[in-house]
Amino acid sequence: MRRDIFQAIADPTRRAIITLIALQAMTPNAIADNFNTTRQSVSKHLRILTECELVKQEQQGREIYYSLEIQKMKEVDKWLNQFRKIWETRFDQLDKVLSTIKKQKK
Amino acid sequence: MRRDIFQAIADPTRRAIITLIALQAMTPNAIADNFNTTRQSVSKHLRILTECELVKQEQQGREIYYSLEIQKMKEVDKWLNQFRKIWETRFDQLDKVLSTIKKQKK
DNA sequence: TATATTTGCAACCGATTGGTTTCTTAAACA
DNA sequence: TGTTTAAGAAACCAATCGGTTGCAAATATA
Q1: Could you say which of B6, B70, B90 has the minimum Cβ distance to residue A15?
Q2: Does residue A21 come out as left (phi exceeding 0), alpha (psi in the -120 to 50 range) or beta?
Q3: Contacts of A74 (CB under 8 A, 6+ apart)
Q4: Does residue A48 contact residue A14 with C-beta atoms inside 8 Å?
Q5: Is the separation of the CB atoms in A44 and B61 below 8 Å?
Q6: Distance B27 CA to C2 C1' (A)
Q7: pTM score over 0.85
Q8: What is the mean pLDDT of each run of 10 residues along chain B (106 residues)?
Q9: Which of A27, A51, A81, B42 could form a disulfide with B32 if both were Cys (CB 3.0 to 4.6 A apart)?
Q10: Å between B106 CA and nearest CA of chain A
């Protein structure tokens, strides 16, 4: 099964998990408390997130703390870069149009 | 069927289509020429992209030109913002560690 | 007008998805 | 030691996905 980060963030529950553990590591049980779903389903989501290296585990006794591999998120940012250039240019163009209208009003 | 942009960009073919039409509008036939798939399957992808308003159509005779709604891409960027703050902070911390090591070497 | 071209839509298919239930393993604790 | 708790793995299920084939509608062209 080929997993990538785009597939990982496609699911809304997974996006919520990512946000949840972005700032502090959490156990599967603690994560599951935040959703209307079973612990096992959260466990499955964590497996997918682990498979595409978006998440890292730290065992502590019988508990496992999951935290976000924040650097991995940059891959999405990197992909967005190609479009960022375009939408900034488009914004510049809109800016020009607006200032032209302003000038005409004078 | 609830569609959102994250589901739209989960598929690699759709991401390629998005990149392809980011700079210039194209017809479904022209788009399909770039992939090892049927025109109908590209048509399906375009329908999904249209449903979540990532793409706009412009009819020209019997041809339909599809182009990217670049502004919509900002939604992904917006979602990334919460993490950007974190990874920039982490980078600052790494920066501090590195400069500390530098000082110790002196 | 008859024919060719461009496109979307519906029906179908195998694979995958997200979820549940059940079971097992391992650690903590009485 | 026996019990409780935390977690992953396996088996199953309905729904969805991405793809194909076949067809219909609309426009262009001879």
Answers
A1: B6
A2: alpha
A3: B87
A4: yes
A5: no
A6: 27
A7: yes
A8: 89 98 97 97 98 96 97 96 89 67 62
A9: B42
A10: 31
